[in-house]
Amino acid sequence: MILDSSTKNAPLPDDAMIAALRHGGLLLDVDAARFEELTGGVSSDIWKVMTPERTYCVKRALPQLRVAAEWHAPVERNRFEVAWYEVVGKIVRSAAPRVLYHDADAMLCAMEYLDPTSHPLWKTELRDGRADPLMAAEVGRRLVAIHAATADQADVARRFPRADIFHSIRLEPYLEATATRHSDLHDVLFGLSRRTATTRRVMIHGDVSPKNILIGPDGPVFLDAECACIGDPAFDIAFCLNHLLLKSLWNPAARDGFNACFTMLARTYLDGVTWEPVTELEARAASLLAGLFLARVDGKSPVEYLTVEADRDRVRRCARALLFDPANQLGAVLAAWNRELDS
């Protein structure tokens, strides 16, 4: 659900999407509707649909992601994204968009449209230097509430029977692909991948990133749960904290704010861990964070705003040192990154 949109010469959705929306009762008169293709995403076709009755978003998973590297992913992930939203809606109602319709054959879902005027994107706020530690704390609070409520719950696990999708769209393109660029870290990165794949405790989102979090009037709203599965909660917290580290290169003037957000998000999250010893989870998250940090410059999905090689080298130096000598605490990762930035 990417909110950067353009209406100029926008095409109509294809016949299959139109038919699915008609079947779901969401498109009574196609001639009375307006369609706006939402751009910026790499994994799905996403449209804003405006009808006399309502405005909503429709999302259909793509089998080949729109990235430079060859990156395929099963379209069945759309089913698990819907499941994540539905489960979260019973835990923290305002933390996920409401699903209006799901077509399991077309692998398409429709959900409520959240207007950016009332739901600004967290990534945009951070880009502009508005780094609010209280917002970050609430992200951590909601994330740990979701993990705690789904930990070791058989009924939730039955809704997420597959682990291969998470491997194909997260572990392989991030950790394992990065190992091909850093052969001396091959065993370390594949070890992180295997450990993460075999740790299946809670329902994870798999893409907890500022680009997928809206700042709503009732708190943060998590979008794009295409990677949802039963997995390691350390992945979600590490994945999100990773972006707060990288933002210090995007907007150096706001570095203190990003550091405060990192600290508050980590602290609030760890304070809510109840299903396992918090020291064990934090150690997994800290070591995984180093691998994900390196992956955002040398994996299949590098962050788009690191365009200067000297900046990418800073990430490499810090991440490689942490991978060879893993930290057990998230604060130690933040401290190592600040030492690199100060050097």
CATH architecture label name of the largest domain? Alpha-Beta Complex
SSE succession: EHEEEHEEHHHHHEEEEHHHHH
**Sheet with the most strands?**
6 strands, antiparallel
Q: How far apart are the first and last residues' alpha carbons, in Å?
A: 39 Å
Helical coverage, percent range = 40-55%
Spans of at least 5 consecutive residues with low confidence: 1-8
Look at the structure and give the mean pLDDT: 92
Specify the CATH homologous superfamily of the largest domain.
Aminoglycoside phosphotransferase (APH), C-terminal lobe
How many structural units, i.e. domains? Answer: 2
Number of DSSP strand runs? 10
- CATH class of the largest domain, please? Alpha Beta
Going by helix content, strand content and strand pairing, the class is alpha+beta
**CATH-defined fold name of the largest domain:** Aminoglycoside 3'-phosphotransferase, Chain: A, domain 2
Largest sheet, spatial ordering of strands:
1-2-3-4-6-5
Radius of gyration: 20 Å
- CA-based shape: globular
